[in-house]
Write a structure and sequence with these properties.
- This protein is of the alpha/beta class and 298 residues long.
- It has 2 domains: 166 residues, P-loop containing nucleotide triphosphate hydrolases (Rossmann fold); 110 residues, K homology (KH) domain (GMP Synthetase, Chain A, domain 3), CATH 3.30.300.20.
- 33% of the residues lie in helices and 25% in strands.
- The strands form 2 sheets. Strands 1, 2, 3, 4, 5, 6 and 7 form a 7-stranded mixed β-sheet that branches.
- A hairpin with a 2-residue loop joins strand 2 and strand 3.
- The radius of gyration is 20 Å and the shape is globular.
- The relative contact order is 0.15.
Length: 298
């Protein structure tokens, strides 16, 4: 009989290379917000992959970027600090990349960790470009594997899990097999609302959005059906942003709420009554009393 393996895996890379999409696909559930915008992930989110002979705890980290705020500094710190404490590193790059991220590579080299290079978005380039990238990175580090993938085309995703599993040691299951994330329902609701806002809003607004769920309770309707009452506030940096988030006649806020409610109902498998408010909290991205909430757990 095969021994049971377990271990921790961190996923690192530049911002917007598709780390969250890969993790959601590997876990089989939506645990990380996805938007076609940089810096969508702010803290470390754990997903749990349960297989017959293994349990993989996989961590989504913020994308590394040039920071302009205390929040940005914290995000970069979260990503880099995750590397030394795991069993396997997944280093994600884009097939269309123009330059190598020396900082990430240096941290991987320092850690001497088993690292799998994932070349994402291979559907956007030709085979020669992929081959050239593989050759280039082979000379930079002794990767245990290099896997070209396309999340969009669902290509080679299963290979990632197989490769991770083959590089883990014998160990116990850290979580119940029913669990797929360490996030609370409140955190999942906050991330879901923020994701919808990121997807729908103009470019100048998203980085300054903070979502706080102030109420999350279940009750029974008159028909004795279970329903979640969820109330949340979207905080933004400026009064002008507040107007954009609310939109003409409240249409944008209504749209954010509708899309978020639909997702939450699928995840919770029950009806959701969602109420949203918008408030201004100036320069919160530099307020350490708020920013420290995003610090990764030790």
């Amino acid at each position: 009989m095969d021994c049971f393996k377990s271990g921790f895996v961190t996923v690192v890379g530049k911002t917007n290379v598709g780390k969250s999409s890969i993790i959601n696909r590997l876990v089989g559930e939506k645990i990380s917000a996805i938007a076609n915008k940089p810096q969508t992930t702010r803290t470390i989110i754990r997903g749990i992959i349960n297989r017959p002979n293994s349990q993989i705890v996989i961590m989504d980290t913020p994308g590394l970027h040039k920071s302009k705020s205390k929040l940005g500094n914290m995000m970069n710190e979260n990503a880099i600090s995750s590397i030394p404490d795991v069993d396997v590193v997944l280093y994600v790059i884009e097939a269309t990349e123009k330059s190598i991220d020396e900082k990430i590579l240096e941290k991987i080299k320092e850690s001497k960790k088993k690292t799998i290079l994932i070349i994402n978005k291979i559907d956007l380039v030709d085979a020669k470009k992929i081959a050239d990238l593989i050759d280039k990175y082979k000379n930079l580090y002794d990767f245990v594997a290099i896997i070209p993938v396309s999340v969009k085309k669902d290509k080679n995703i299963e290979e990632i899990i197989d490769e991770i599993e083959s590089n883990l040691k014998e160990g116990p299951a850290y979580y119940s097999v029913e669990e797929y994330t360490n996030q609370t329902l409140r955190q999942i609701a906050e991330e879901t609302i923020r994701e919808k806002a990121l997807k729908l809003l103009q470019d100048e607004v998203p980085h300054g959005i903070l979502v706080e769920v102030t109420k999350m309770k279940t009750r029974k309707t008159k028909e004795m059906e279970k329903i979640y009452d969820v109330e949340a506030t979207i905080f933004c940096l400026r009064e002008s942003h507040k107007g954009i988030i609310i939109g003409k006649n409240g249409n944008m806020l209504k749209k954010i709420g509708t899309y978020a409610r639909e997702d939450l109902e699928k995840m919770l498998d029950t009806k959701v009554n969602l109420k949203l408010w918008v408030k201004v909290k100036e320069d919160w991205i530099n307020d350490m009393s708020i920013v420290k909430k995003f610090k990764a757990e030790e």
